[in-house]
Amino acid sequence: MKVPPPMASAHHKEPHLSGRTGWLRAAVMGANDGILSVAALITGVAAGGADRVEILLAGIAGTAAGAMSMAAGEYVSVSSQADTERADIAREKAELKTNPRGELLELAAIYRERGLSPQLAAEVAEELTAKDALGAHLRDEIGITDLAPPQPVQAAIVSALTFTAGAAVPVLVSGLTPIGIVVPAVGAATLVALAGLGALGAQAGGAPRGRAALRVVIWGVLAMAATSAIGALVGQAV
Q1: What is the pLDDT of residues 104-119, one digit of tens each?
Q2: 231 within 8 A of 48, measured Cβ to Cβ
């Protein structure tokens, strides 16, 4: 077999999907939570004997509250992650300035633990330190890369929008179907939407679609069964 020259392989780039994890996680979580939480809320209220106006009011209120909650939660969570990374970067800069020799030895030890010989580990550490000491330590010592940096605003916006889009499924179904079949109609539409979302998210991330779809459907069934039972019990008691 003919081996391509070294320079030919330098231009070969494999497509990787890890760079999508930042927005993809927020999008899938937002849509999944929107579909499931609002559907569970609607089925619980409908099972308790509520009329159409009360069901729609509950769904719309749940959508608004959930979207704002998801946006705030994502923003705070991702901001905390960004703050932690900035603190680690500042600490590493200070250590490189005050103890460069110790940091070089630490980097070489990391490469030895990964399987390089002591001599090669020392050479790699020295060359990477000469080129970009901070980048080498952030990547190999702490695990921080620039592949998917934290973006709090992006995560908040994506979560709010996808939550609202997901919640629109049970809200629309509850408004368009006869009042007597709201619970089964919302349940069926929710399971279909959850399965589609799980498969779509898995495909975007390069993971198996069937397993992802089954996972979210199982949790959807459990959530709606629980809220329907609670709604029916409370409705009977009232």
Answers
A1: 999 999 999 999 999 9
A2: yes
Of 32 and 54, the one with more pLDDT: 54
DSSP class of residue 116 equals -
- For the record, the structure tokens of 35 come out as 């579909």
Q: Which of 13-22, 75-84, 123-132 is least confident?
A: 13-22
DSSP annotation string for 11-77: T------GGGHHHHHHHHHHHHHHHHHHHHHHHHHHHTT--HHHHHHHHHHHHHHHHHHHHHHHHHH
The two structure tokens encoding residue 17: 């999907």
d(CA 218, CA 222): 6
On whether residue 21 sits in a domain, the answer given is no
What token pair was written down for 32?
Answer: 């999944």
In the DSSP assignment, the letter for residue 2 is P
Task: For residue 87, give its domain range.
Answer: 27-237
Amino acid in position 141: E
Task: Domain count for the chain, please give it.
Answer: 1
| DSSP output for 44-60 | HHHHTT--HHHHHHHHH
Q: What is the pTM of this model?
A: 0.71
Number of H helices, E strands in the chain: 8, 0
Is there a domain that residue 126 lies in?
yes
In this structure, what token pair is assigned to residue 58?
């509950």
| 85/142 Cα distance (integer angstroms) | 9
Q: Is residue 156 part of a domain?
A: yes
Mean pLDDT, all residues of the chain: 82
